[in-house]
Amino acid sequence: MNRRLSHLSAAQATILDALIDQPEPCTVAALSAQIGQHPNTIREHLDRLTIGGLVVRTQAVAQGRGRPAWLYSAVRAVGSDREARAYAALASVLAAQVGRISAQPGADAVEAGRMWGRELVRESQLSQGQISGPAGSPSAVATRRTVVTLLDELGFAPSADARVRVVRLRRCPLLEAAHRNPEVVCSVHLGLVRGALDELGADPGRTEAIALQPFSEPGACRLDMSPRPTTE
């Protein structure tokens, strides 16, 4: 461990790691949802990290009535990435815009994610010299494992059971955007999974039954990859 970080408690290190993983500043509420600790506890640790020079606190732009929220990010020397922050800012703006102008923001977000998931699988197959489309009819479990690998590469830190029926996503690459606009951002992530499975040749009926429950467990979102009984 870096000497500068060796004095941190386990809880402080967990919070700092969460901020390092995030390309955009986060509120206490968003961190609390991901880590599964009480907001007051999170706030106390953030105060210590800020005093220690590891975290920067800024105030969000005022929106409507009430005092603007405080936003926290890891200092650049610890884990900031300008390009990632720019991407996250764009994603947040797009999510907010979809939420405002779409008559069905959740459905539209799922379809956008679906196109993204298909494209990601195609790119992965091309990079590995594979021909797009299922080859050799892999089992449903193997197909789900491929999607979990994709989610891991995207930064979701997935943890799956033996048959990949339930996957816990322990990180969110767009945590603050998801906390502000869960209907849009989380629906994009659900669509991503469905689209990846579509491209891999999964059963369409089972793909449509997949469900994502945002912030449903302490420190994780729950992805039900096989919500109905199977005979595979």
How does this model look, in words?
This protein has about 230 residues and is α+β, with helices and mostly antiparallel strands. The chain folds into 2 domains: about 5-80, Winged helix-like DNA-binding domain superfamily/Winged helix DNA-binding domain (Arc Repressor Mutant, subunit A, Orthogonal Bundle); about 85-225, Muramoyl-pentapeptide Carboxypeptidase, domain 2 (2-Layer Sandwich). The protein is built from 10 helices and 6 strands. The chain has helices at about 10-20, 30-35, 40-50, 75-80, 80-100, 105-125, 140-155, 175-180, 180-200, 205-210, and strands at about 55-60, 70-75, 160, 165-170, 210-215, 220-225. The strands form 2 sheets. It has a 4-stranded antiparallel β-sheet with strand order 3-4-6-5. A hairpin with a 5-residue loop joins strand 3 (about 160) and strand 4 (about 165-170). Helix 1 (about 10-20) crosses helix 3 (about 40-50), helix 5 (about 80-100) runs antiparallel to helix 6 (about 105-125) and helix 6 packs across helix 9. It is globular, with a radius of gyration of 19 Å.
What are the main properties of this structure?
232 residues, alpha+beta, Arc Repressor Mutant, subunit A, Muramoyl-pentapeptide Carboxypeptidase, domain 2, four-stranded antiparallel β-sheet, 12% strand, globular
Query: Class of the largest domain in CATH?
Result: Alpha Beta
Radius of gyration: 19 Å
Derived from helix and strand composition plus strand pairing, the structural class reads alpha+beta
Tally of discrete structural domains:
2
Which fold does the CATH topology of the largest domain refer to? Answer: Muramoyl-pentapeptide Carboxypeptidase, domain 2
Topology pattern, helix = H, strand = E: HHHEEHHHHEEHHHEE
Overall 3D form: globular
Strand segment tally: 6
Helical proportion? 40-55%
Counting DSSP H or I runs of 4 or more residues, the number of helices is 10
- Mind summarizing the main beta sheet? 4 strands, antiparallel
CATH architecture of the largest domain: 2-Layer Sandwich
| Largest sheet, spatial ordering of strands | 3-4-6-5
Low-confidence stretches: none
- On the 0 to 100 scale, the average pLDDT is 82
Q: Report how far apart the termini are.
A: 44 Å
